[in-house]
Design goal:
about 120 residues, alpha+beta, 2 domains, 3 helices, 5 strands
C-alpha cells in the first residue's frame, strides 16, 4: 500500500518535512516513490509554510494512496481534498477503538466475579 506522509529533513531543533508518496513498509526517512511538496513548521508566515503539488497528490489518492492523518489535515486545510469523508472515517475509527476498550475492560471484570 502506498502512503502519503511526511519525511523529516533539516537540522536538530529546525525541522523541515517533505510530503512524499512512500510504500507503507518503508521507514520514515526511507526510499520514496515521489516528492509531492514540503512543509516548514518554523516559518513565521503561514502562507509560506507549505508547498504542495495538488495535481500529483490527487493522482496518488486516485490510485489508492492513503494519506497519514497529519497530511490529510494539511490537504483539507489547503482544500485539495474534501474533509467530510475523512472526518466520517475518523469518527468511525474512534468509535471502534472506544468499543474495543470497553470490551477489554468488561472482560476482566466478568472473570473476577465469584460464581
Amino acid at each position: 500500500m502506498v502512503r502519503i506522509r511526511m519525511t523529516r529533513i533539516g537540522r536538530p531543533h529546525l525541522p523541515f518535512y517533505r510530503i512524499t508518496a512512500v510504500d507503507s513498509r518503508v521507514k520514515r526517512d526511507g526510499a520514496v516513490l515521489e516528492n509531492l511538496g514540503w512543509y516548514d513548521p518554523m516559518t513565521k508566515d503561514a502562507a509560506k509554510a507549505t508547498s504542495l503539488n495538488a495535481e500529483r497528490i490527487k493522482h496518488w489518492i486516485k490510485m489508492g494512496a492513503q494519506p497519514s492523518d497529519t497530511v490529510m489535515a494539511m490537504l483539507i486545510s489547503q482544500k485539495i481534498v474534501d474533509g467530510a469523508e475523512f472526518n466520517a472515517r475518523r469518527e468511525k475509527r474512534i468509535k471502534a477503538v472506544e468499543a474495543a476498550k470497553a470490551k477489554a475492560a468488561a472482560a476482566p471484570a466478568a472473570e473476577k466475579k465469584p460464581a
